[in-house]
């Protein structure tokens, strides 16, 4: 029998090259007339934020530009943006950028109609013990990297000062627009690690507790598309066929992991990213092989399929062999697209292992569809370091 489970897609997504041109009509369909456009300096310089701004203004929407989003979405930056949003009396938010920008946009949409206390009480919201006094204002998410999937996921990952870690504030996006035209200026290294982030979403979604045949289907197709298109997009930024397929892969990986989930790799990536400020996708790229090797003990056939999608010819049915060969395929792929190992990034083994308490203490760690012991956590970190 196939595993039972619910098929969900959190928000509609308009996909395709040039679709950002429809942002005005979409924003207006939510009744918004004055929005905050959340972005960052890099995206502003690349032109994507200005392009969306012009589209919105042509539709008669007033735009308050806020291009100060910061990497890893620090709580303080959300508060600053929300203060501007409240003062300007915005009735919607549009995020244009990578994962940190989209997370900032989602968080701002919840904080503006409420207050900064939302960020202090983030655990209560995440665990369902508290609900927003006022509903978040509509938030339309327009990614400019093929990685995050944030336009389809229910949390804004915020760096909490109080908790000194990354944690999710539940804020569903209202709508996503995935337009590969906006991604053509992303530099090779960022293309590589954001693509590896999407791969890690799909890979972990296969073995999270809530996975379904539907989330598996999306995850496997995302893996296939990333394997086939990421090297081309890294090699030639203007390869729009590859960019478009990667944009789709990232989008369906986001839908897959919002229905299923991510787990061990993301717990460790959040800890390492927070402690050593390594880009999220780089952490994920280096952790995924170790997670695959661990997951193969419980899910050998799924990890065999993943390995095959990544180009490995796995003839054995021994979980140890499957895990090693699938992990090797992903690691070689990461190196081929230019991802440096933790060692090459200058991290020491001691620093790596020092992330264990934060990693193992993260709730996502227990979302893996099987037992994860403290020793497993240590072994995964060691494997990710040595691999
Ligand atoms: Fe991720």
Automatic annotation (TrEMBL):
InterPro entries: ADH_Fe/GldA, ADH_Fe_C, Alcohol_dehydrogenase_Fe. Keywords: Oxidoreductase. GO terms for molecular function: alcohol dehydrogenase (NAD+) activity; metal ion binding. CDD domains: Fe-ADH-like. The keyword Oxidoreductase applies. Residues 191-384 form the Fe-containing alcohol dehydrogenase-like C-terminal domain. Residues 13-178 form the Alcohol dehydrogenase iron-type/glycerol dehydrogenase GldA domain. It is an enzyme of class 1 (oxidoreductase). This is Alcohol dehydrogenase, iron-dependent. It comes from [Clostridium] hylemonae DSM 15053.
């Amino acid at each position: 029998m196939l595993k039972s489970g619910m098929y969900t897609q959190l928000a509609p997504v308009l996909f395709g090259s040039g679709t950002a041109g429809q942002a005005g009509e979409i924003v207006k369909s939510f009744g918004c007339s004055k929005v905050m456009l959340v972005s960052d300096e890099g995206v502003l310089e690349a032109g994507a934020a200005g392009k969306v701004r012009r589209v919105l203004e042509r539709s008669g929407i007033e735009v308050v530009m806020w291009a100060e989003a910061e990497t890893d979405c620090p709580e303080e930056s959300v508060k600053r943006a929300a203060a501007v949003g409240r003062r300007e009396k915005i009735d919607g938010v549009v995020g244009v950028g990578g994962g940190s920008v989209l997370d900032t946009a989602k968080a701002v949409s919840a904080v503006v109609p409420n207050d900064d206390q939302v960020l202090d009480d983030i655990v209560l919201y995440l665990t369902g013990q508290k609900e927003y006094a006022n509903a978040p204002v509509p938030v339309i998410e327009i990614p400019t990297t093929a990685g995050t999937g944030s336009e389809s996921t229910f949390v804004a990952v915020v760096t909490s000062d109080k908790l000194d870690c990354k944690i999710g504030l539940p804020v569903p996006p209202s709508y996503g627009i995935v337009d590969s035209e906006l991604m053509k200026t992303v530099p090779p290294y960022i293309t590589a690690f954001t693509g590896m982030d999407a791969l890690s979403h799909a890979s972990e979604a296969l073995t999270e507790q809530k996975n379904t045949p539907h989330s598996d289907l999306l995850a496997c197709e995302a893996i296939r598309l990333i394997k086939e298109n990421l090297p081309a997009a890294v090699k030639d930024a203007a390869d729009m066929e590859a960019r478009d397929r990667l944009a789709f892969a990232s989008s369906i990986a986001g839908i897959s992991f919002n229905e299923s989930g991510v787990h061990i790799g993301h717990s460790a990536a959040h800890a390492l990213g927070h402690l050593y400020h390594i880009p999220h996708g780089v952490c994920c790229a280096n952790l995924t092989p170790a997670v695959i090797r661990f997951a193969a003990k419980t899910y050998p056939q799924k990890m065999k399929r993943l390995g095959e999608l990544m180009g490995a010819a796995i003839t054995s049915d021994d979980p140890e062999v499957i895990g090693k060969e699938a992990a090797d395929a992903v690691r070689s792929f990461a190196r081929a697209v230019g991802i440096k190992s933790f060692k090459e990034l200058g991290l020491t083994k001691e620093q790596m292992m020092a992330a264990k308490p934060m990693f193992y203490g993260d709730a996502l760690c227990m979302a893996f569809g099987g037992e994860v012991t403290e020793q497993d956590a240590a072994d995964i970190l060691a494997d990710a370091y040595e691999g």
